[in-house]
Amino acid sequence: RSARARFRRQGGRLTPDRLDRWVLHPVELMVALLIFAIMALTVVDVVGRYGFNAPVQGSIEAIELMLGVLIYMAIPLASARAEHIRIDLLDYLLGPRAQRMQRVVGSLATAAVMGFLAWRLYERGAQFAQFRDASSHLGVPLAPVAWVMAALAAITVLVALRDFARALRAPSVA
């Protein structure tokens, strides 16, 4: 889908959805900052390790935690842009109604799976908080990390429900 498809027509002009403006755009910014942080930490660690025999302590663990969050940040963005992996081997065989139903069912399935993941991540975060679990080297509390991942999975649910509503409203050509 083009960037234009992410906008809706309002009063003769295209405006971004509230979900795009207030949720997905800030997540895009956070993704960029997180990727930069991972890159910078990796560069400093490699230079320190091989140039000065002084690696950054806990860098691997920090990168692992950042990558986990980064993955959950990318899921709602990929879903909102319909840039996730799709297999369209049989799409040409389906008529417009069947393709619309495919979008409806796919959006509902995505919402259900991501809702389940959000719930389980929230529960896991509660367990981490109860036992005060932390990362092994840096001592970073794991509960907030799990809760951030749960929130990002919940954002994906919102994106899937928006896609579901759009698929229901889309005209189906006979």
Summarize the structure.
This protein is mainly α and 174 residues long.
Report on the structure:
α1 (18-51) runs antiparallel to α2 (59-80), α2 packs parallel to α4 (142-169) and α3 packs antiparallel against α4. It contains four helices and two strands; from the N terminus they run ββαααα. The longest helix is centred in the middle third of the chain and has 35 residues, at 96-130. The protein has helices at 18-51, 59-80, 96-130, 142-169; strands at 7-10, 13-16. The relative contact order is 0.13. It is 68% helix and 5% strand.
Low-pLDDT windows of residues: none
Report the strand count.
Answer: 2
Proportion of strand residues? under 5%
**Mean of the pLDDT scores?**
89
Largest sheet: 2 strands, antiparallel
Radius of gyration: 20 Å
Helix percentage: 55-70%
Task: Give the strand order of the largest sheet, numbering strands 1, 2, ... along the chain.
Answer: 1-2
How many DSSP H or I helices? 4
Order of helices and strands: EEHHHH
**N- to C-terminal distance:** 23 Å
Form type: elongated
Structural class: mainly alpha
List the helices and strands and how they pair.
Elements: E1 7-10, E2 13-16, H1 18-51, H2 59-80, H3 96-130, H4 142-169
Antiparallel strand pairs: 1-2
Helix pairs in contact: 1-2, 2-4, 3-4
Provide the descriptors you would attach to this structure in a database record.
mainly alpha; single chain; 174 residues
